Amino acid sequence: MPPSPPHSSLDRREFLTAASAAALLAAAPASRALAEPRKPKPNRPRNLIMLVADGMSTGSLQVANIHARHTLGRNLHMYDMLADPSITTSLVNTDCANSLVTDSAAAASCWGCGHRVNNGVLCYTPEHRSPEPIFVRAKRHAGKAIGLVSTTFIQDATPAAFAVNAPKRSMYRAVVDQYVDYKIDLIVGGGGRECSDEQLAQDPSITVQRTKTAFLKAMGTPGRHAALLADWHMRYEIDRTDAEPSLAEMSRATIHHLANTREAFCIMIEGARVDHAAHGNDAAALVHDMLAFDDAVRVALDYAKDDPETLVIVTTDHANANPGIARYGSYDRYLANLASAKHSFEWVFEHFRALPTTGRTPDAFADLFQRAINAELSTVERTMLNRTLDNRPADAFEEADNTTCVMGAIAANHFGVAFNSPNHTSDPVISLALGPGADLLPRVSHLTDTHDLIQRLFDLPPVT
Hints:
Elements: H1 19-26, H2 32-35, E1 47-52, H3 58-72, H4 77-83, E2 88-93, H5 104-113, H6 134-142, E3 145-153, H7 157-161, H8 172-181, E4 186-190, H9 197-200, E5 206-209, H10 212-218, E6 224-228, H11 247-261, E7 265-270, H12 273-279, H13 283-306, E8 310-315, E9 319-320, E10 324-325, H14 332-340, H15 345-353, H16 362-373, H17 379-389, H18 403-415, E11 417-418, E12 424-425, E13 429-434, E14 444-446, H19 447-457
Parallel strand pairs: 1-7, 1-8, 2-14, 3-4, 3-7, 4-6, 5-6
Antiparallel strand pairs: 2-13, 8-13, 9-12, 10-11
Helix pairs in contact: 3-13, 3-14, 5-19, 11-13, 12-13, 15-16, 17-18
């Protein structure tokens, strides 16, 4: 496909807002906290906090906001940001080099190296070049401390693309080796089973924490830190126990750690399981992780309110599965059902696998599913579930003919939230920017424009 025009060719006055963003703005009254006067802003930021709700379509934002209004009596902080005239809103295109539909590696590589790359690679161009990633340049040329925080395994595509070059996103050992080589100051997330103490010990200045208590105690102490708080993904918020920190707790601890121990910092904070819930068509898991991400956004906003030299970007890498409220009439019953859900679909599979082999029956699976969504399944719903468990066709759309999509369709009968597929989509997404230089983000942009904005504001050398 032909490349999108550079953002310098856009007349900003022609793009005061985009249609989908306008629809969101119309329903989003500004919060008092966001409307408070801020300290004068410098021309350039000293710090960057970039928050990424992986896979957050505008549908995910809307459904989560409706859930927040029902359960909390207020909008999401992100919704309030949309209505704040001091915050720049951009409608962002996400196509990569070889597809209209991007994966997380190619999308985050747009931020990492400013180039469209093929799906499945990390800052590795179709011409087989490896441009130096944005956070490596920020450390090397601008002296920034670097932090990477995620609710998935820390070797995964989104955090890795800010600091790693690799021809395959699955080169997890190479990812960690580059974290060590490039002296990334702070990594926090899951992935402990793929990251040994011996591998990290290549640099003796790194200390490793593997529990919430150890992680929180280490924050504020000198040196570099790797907090590996789960074997693989961290749990969905709906399933999380106090043994794991929330994303807001991780964000607060890491922001203040870098602020108190370094002169200036760049940190990426990812709510990764928003994407996983969308892939799984799991509406209850989705809204809980969206609210958890929104709590982390509030942490960043509170910090930036007291530090006018901090640029905050709240965004996503791509849309996924495009959930939406999809039933007519009163929604009180559906919203109450959604709010009453107990567990994720992941919890269902985990507990099903834990049953004795003889106990792994379709009825046992259905019973666990009922417990998770806190709703009684009809005979027809049980029949559809049995079909997919028996590997028989249950959906005419081949992409959606799988167990989790059937579970999502059944849950839609109770929650009123439907998904279009288990896949990423080509839809544009929303980006929000606050702080020095935020107004330079084009109102209609591409993921690569965010890279260019960071490069420009931190006076980093261009990629080659």
